[in-house]
């Protein structure tokens, strides 16, 4: 429920229209939730994303694939903002923050959200407030007015798989991973780790959901290791909650993360998680759920421990699951973001 007058909010998303990842999902979820609260919400981004932002959110296509110094991009952004006259200009990620720092009217409050740890966060220096999506990111920021607001996800309670929809035969232990099929997600190391499990993986099947440039190489790796019957690459799934509820274990194998949606959605669905030592899992999961490193043998070790006692792991992650239900929902994220908007607005 909205408190106070409706705000005009412009969310700036400057990714170039390729893969759909966590930052893009965050922006879509936040825009819909703020619009449902009664605010006038505009999203400026690449035209490839327009279908992801249905009414009542208003989408404005910008050529954000151009460089951040491109004069045409700056001109079009300024023109759109003059027409909107937003109370809040909220930049998602580094490039959007760079652009937002150079535009906006005198009465516009500029806020930036940092979605990952970078070697430098100077792109956010001109923001009035900065949001970090995890404690680790907040600790890395030097901005004097930074705030922690976790990513939030919405999980459909009616998203369970019927027996006829189940991916695998009854009795199979379902293990899943999800994300863009790019090197930063470490799926090649996860596949290698799976090949090292031996009898620990008996009766188990690993499914990796997602699309990306590494798909051909990952498929070839699976064939080369003779794992065609125990690892699947079904592609992108629009409703992963269905699969988290079917799974017994979720795996994060990334090099780095901000605060991964895989973690949030898994916990909201009651699916225990093991992970490489990245932001998000490091804050929420028990030590035995975190691998000692990012190499295949370290991932294999944490998988072996988890598969040997899945019920025990689920019990030890009960606190993290309760935290997710209380704090990692779209509603919680939107309410805290709106409160920050109102705190920083004059008057």
UniProtKB/TrEMBL annotation:
Residues 20-155 form the Glycosyltransferase subfamily 4-like N-terminal domain. GO terms for molecular function: glycosyltransferase activity. Keywords: Transferase. It comes from the Bacteria. InterPro entries: Glyco_trans_1, Glyco_trans_4-like_N. Residues 173-309 form the Glycosyl transferase family domain. PANTHER family: GLYCOSYLTRANSFERASE. This is Glycosyltransferase involved in cell wall bisynthesis. It comes from Marinobacter gudaonensis.
